């Protein structure tokens, strides 16, 4: 099947491209920078079913050209950071870009769109468990989460009344081989821990999902997902201290964090870090939205994806071993 993947040079998009190729799809990857894509995706000569198309989700014209002839679209792009110097990017890319993708797909007669969303659109008490029935009824307090809420609304509205069926893949926090941004867990936590340079971690925890698990979930959502439904894709929940401790154990070197920061210290770090970031225009060590998410510490329930899609999670140690091996961090 001819398939378009947006965000193809990101961690999620690159994994979806690989999974779609392995499943026999003819993949058209939307990339802003072909030179960067060459370092992330298989070269077309090695993957003859892969076509790179230059474009941008904020440019509707480029999307109209990219989606021609595609039956299936994976909208895997997005700005994943919890802090940006220019917060309007969340609205322009996550919301406007998603709306543009859905409109282009519908106009081109695509059959199905799988939209990469997040578990941040749900609600639960701190430390509680939630599933797809727990959609937040009000806008979330930080810009990233609000943009993901509005992106879901935008793609569903754009597809209404057309033949395009939208399925929402709600991802937990992603880790795994692939492109590493400055905000990625691999760069900010895994590598420093393995090198013995992470003395403390913030409090709290989150659900995690391995890139290949997430990509498999996207393909299953395309094949078996119910139009309009959300599917949580989460391998399991860990505290940050447990996660980093397991990284050190799997790597066979490094040092566990000496302590978990007291909440008041983490709150002060986030506030002062963001104040400095407004001056330097560089991301803070810990953003307030990031800390709020960690302190929420809620447990995503992936039962629907397992039951209805036949999706299976990846054990944490297996995913970490493959991640650390790809990053050259194993002993």
TrEMBL record:
Mind telling me which GO cellular component terms the entry cites?
cytoplasm
Q: Which residues form the NAD-dependent epimerase/dehydratase domain?
A: 4-197
**Annotated GO MF terms:** aldehyde dehydrogenase (NAD+) activity
Pfam family of this protein, just one?
A: Epimerase
InterPro entries noted in UniProt: Epimerase_deHydtase (IPR001509), NAD(P)-bd_dom_sf (IPR036291), NAD(P)-dependent_oxidoreduct (IPR051783)
Question: What is the annotated signal peptide range for this record?
Answer: none
Q: What is this protein called?
A: NAD-dependent epimerase/dehydratase family protein
